[in-house]
Amino acid sequence: MYIAMLDVKEQEQVVRALKGWQFVRTNHGSLYDRGSADSYYGRARDPHYGGVGGESGERVSVNDNASVAEYMQGYNDNERDGAKKDWR
Questions:
Q1: DSSP 32-75
Q2: Angle formed by the axes of helices 65-81 and 31-40, to 10°?
Q3: Model confidence over 53-70: pLDDT tens digits?
């Protein structure tokens, strides 16, 4: 299958799959998941993935553009949605 024959959403899925599990948004411990979790719990932005056990294993800090962008998308989506931990 040629990537040019795929629509934009399908192309993004292929790119994420080729980059690794940390780019699959539904994976626990992924960049997107950790960004949304940091926002949910009121933590500062700190781009990373993993660190939650299981397949995600050890916490890995990131600073490359693609990884930071994926983490920030999760963080910003959660900020926009207003899903926050109620600490009462």
A1: HHHHHHHHHTTPPP--EE--SSGGG-S-EE--SHHHHHHHHHHH
A2: 40
A3: 655 578 999 999 999 999
More confident residue, 29 or 13: 29
Beta bridge partners of 49: 60
pLDDT of residue 6: 74
Q: Residue 22's closest CA among 45, 46, 47, 49? A: 49
End-to-end CA distance of the chain: 52
Contact 59, 31 (CB under 8 A): no
pLDDT at 56: 59
The length of the chain, given as a count of residues: 88
Both structure tokens of 59: 């916490």
**Radius of gyration for the alpha carbons in the chain, expressed in angstroms and rounded:** 14
Cβ atoms within 10 A of the Cβ of 51, count? 14
CB 60 within 8 A of CB 38: no
